[in-house]
Amino acid sequence: MYSPPITISNKIVDHCIGISNLLGYTRGINLPEPQPKLRKENQIKTIQATLAIEGNSFSVDQVTAIIDGQRVRGEESEILEVKNTIAVYEKLHQWIPTRKSSMLEAHRLLMRHLIDNPGEWRSSGVGIIKGHQISHMAPPADRVPFLMDDLFVYLTKDKETHLFIKACVFHYELLFIHPFIDGNGRMARLWQQLILINYNAVFRFISIESLIRENQKEYYRVLENSDKSGESTVFVEFLLGLILSELDSLVQKLDRKRRTSAERIKQAAEHFGEQFFSRKEYLNYFEGISSATASRDLKKAVDLGFLLKHGDKATTRYQFN
């Protein structure tokens, strides 16, 4: 069985243990189903991020407008890229990460009317140009079907390597093989996200695409270093580190939500100090609690004399006493 070149470093092992521990924590707190508004916001953020990495100039507001069926101004190709990507992510639950046919169908939808023969492996050679030099020469086109078969076998049959690692390796190897004439980066990020979501639904709360967008320079640096070393080790270390950090942030938000009113007020006092803040800012800090819960917290703190209230209705501001 094919095994992609990688050294399972101590850092990779530590990251996997950390991610597993955090996932265990989320299982114990009955993680809520993302609300429709939150799901939509995450989807918009993901779509805008994965397109921005590839040079699409559309903002979050413009992507939102297209999703809402509004007309927007811009290059026709960029508008089509957004519409195609929206269609792909709306069908995310339909794609099966271990099936090659799902990948080809997703690519067909992603690149329709943008390239010739979308949803098919490339039939010509391709190189990635950086500046005036070719930084990566992909394998010959006639090798692509066999290499992709091997990669899917690795994903489904390798029982010794943890799926966290395999998801990152799959991402790297797809970029290395460059099986499509265009859209490889978007497909690599999409497929890693899909693999992780199918492993644990918690990953619906995390956007791999957005994480990479926020760390784009480092992403390309470790990708280049992996190419030079001939294995994906540093690339996998990097991606697992991002996932671990984002999961940790998610758990902290959930932990803040689970605390009692008194515990939240105490933590808010440490966070806001003497500065004025609104109920909306309180809600944003304790992400996941309801507006009614935030109002009850703040009223209780005012009644007990912990908070000073200034203004009325929309102009209301609070300050710890």
CATH architecture of the largest domain: Orthogonal Bundle
Return the CATH topology of the largest domain: Fic-like fold
Question: What would the average pLDDT be, to the nearest integer?
Answer: 89
Total strand segments: 4
Termini gap:
66 Å
- The figure for the number of domains is 2
N to C succession of SSEs: HHHHHEEHHHHHHHHHEE
Strand order of the largest sheet: 1-2
CATH top level label of the largest domain: Mainly Alpha
Shape: globular
- State the major sheet: 2 strands, antiparallel
- Per DSSP, what share of the residues sits in E-state strands of 2 or more residues? 5-15%
- Low-confidence stretches are none
Q: Structural class of the secondary elements?
A: mainly alpha
Give the helix level as a range of percent: 55-70%
Describe the protein in words:
The protein is mostly helical. The protein has 2 domains: 10-255, Fido-like domain (Fic-like fold), CATH 1.10.3290; 260-320, Winged helix-like DNA-binding domain superfamily/Winged helix DNA-binding domain (Arc Repressor Mutant, subunit A). Helices cover 60% and strands 5% of the residues. The protein is built from 14 helices and 4 strands. It has helices spanning 10-27, 36-53, 60-67, 76-90, 100-110, 144-157, 163-177, 184-199, 208-214, 216-229, 233-258, 261-272, 279-285, 291-303; strands at 127-130, 133-137, 307-310, 317-320. A two-stranded antiparallel ribbon has the order 1-2. Strands 3-4 form a two-stranded antiparallel sheet. Helix 7 (163-177) runs antiparallel to helix 8 (184-199) and helix 12 crosses helix 14.
